[in-house]
């Protein structure tokens, strides 16, 4: 079984740059805060469906101190001068279904604008799918704003069977693993 807590892989962006995709750690708090500050307000809105306040200490703990069973969080890092810079992230949160055959997780993504269009969200989705399958998860669900066509394209191009429905400008997506 793939150990989500110690997950680490290298992957390439469309422009040829390599990124490290790895599990978050408690030591990532300041790097995640710096990455958050690099986001445009439009990206924050697309991720949180609203303007978002400055992350609190509790937010940073929630983003970095996870059990890797009920919640898995990955970050994508560009290695610059021997240090890592977080440029994106993805998470999955196991949903309580009570039925192993229907095991599902909600997924979410955030990619810094300078790296959007480089295939990073699709790569993160693939890595999450690997970890999810190892944990017996059979389906991903996500909600995204109808205006977030780039994320909807990532889901369509994933190769995973997809169902979607739109309610009040929010697209509810289900991807079978």
How would you describe this structure to a colleague?
This protein is α+β, with helices and mostly antiparallel strands. It has a single domain (4-141), classed as Gcn5-related N-acetyltransferase (GNAT) (Aminopeptidase, 3-Layer(aba) Sandwich), CATH 3.40.630. Helices cover 28% and strands 35% of the residues. It has five helices and eight strands. The chain is globular and about 45 Å long.
In short:
Helices cover 28% and strands 35% of the residues.
Largest sheet: 8 strands, mixed
Q: Distance between termini?
A: 16 Å
> Structural class of the secondary structure composition?
alpha+beta
- Give the low-confidence spans: none
- Strand percent estimate: 35-45%
Q: Using only CA atoms, what is the Rg?
A: 15 Å
Number of helices: 5
Percent helix among the residues?
A: 25-40%
Query: Taking all residues together, what is the mean pLDDT?
Result: 88
What tags apply to this protein structure?
Aminopeptidase, 35% strand, eight-stranded mixed sheet, 177 residues, alpha+beta
Q: Could you outline the blueprint of secondary structure elements for this entry?
A:
Layout: E1 8-12, E2 18-23, H1 29-38, H2 41-48, H3 57-64, E3 71-80, E4 83-95, E5 104-111, H4 120-134, E6 139-145, H5 149-157, E7 162-167, E8 170-176
Helix pairs in contact: 1-3
């Amino acid at each position: 079984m793939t150990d989500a807590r110690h997950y680490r892989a290298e992957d390439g962006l469309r422009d040829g740059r390599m990124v490290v995709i790895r599990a978050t750690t408690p030591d990532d708090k300041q790097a995640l805060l710096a990455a958050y500050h690099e986001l445009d307000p439009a990206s924050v809105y697309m991720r949180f469906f609203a303007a978002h306040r400055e992350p609190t200490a509790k937010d940073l703990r929630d983003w970095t101190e996870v059990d890797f069973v009920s919640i898995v969080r990955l970050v994508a890092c560009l290695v610059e001068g021997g240090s890592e810079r977080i440029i994106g992230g993805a998470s999955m949160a196991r949903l309580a279904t009570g039925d192993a055959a229907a095991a599902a997780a909600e997924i979410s993504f955030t990619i810094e604008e300078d790296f959007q269009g480089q295939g990073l969200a699709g790569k993160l989705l693939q890595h999450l799918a690997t970890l999810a399958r190892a944990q017996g998860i059979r389906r991903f669900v996500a909600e995204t704003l109808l205006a977030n066509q780039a994320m909807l394209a990532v889901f369509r191009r994933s190769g995973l069977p997809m169902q979607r429905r739109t309610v009040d400008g929010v697209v509810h997506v289900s991807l079978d693993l």
